[in-house]
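ugh ok fine here u go
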Amino acid sequence: MIKLNTNRVSNLITGKVDAGSIFRDSTREWIYSFIINIDKFKVDMVELWGINEDLRIVRDRNLKKFVVEMDSLQIVNMLIRGAKDYHPLKVLIQEYRAMLRVARSYNLITEDAERARFMRMGKGVNGDRCGS
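structure:
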């Protein structure tokens, strides 16, 4: 199973944004990573730009089982359920949903959900044991 961790960084003063991802295998070993400068965009567009790169890499490397972890619950929900007809990013969402259907097994989660899962398991965010 491959895990894709997607993140974005934005400068509140300049409005410039970077997006990137890290691909790790089931033993948490680094496989691949990237970062791109997107200049000035809305947060949703940045998240989708990162997903675009993730899915392109998944396709190019013929990965069939993977987990995508991202910040935006709204984008995760749209990738699962689809976007409303009037949503400005609907075409991109439809394209990415079609790309996801090709995969044999994938999971879309938010970073908050991942943190909560580790806390329920008594582990830290990086999988280290926490608590007694």
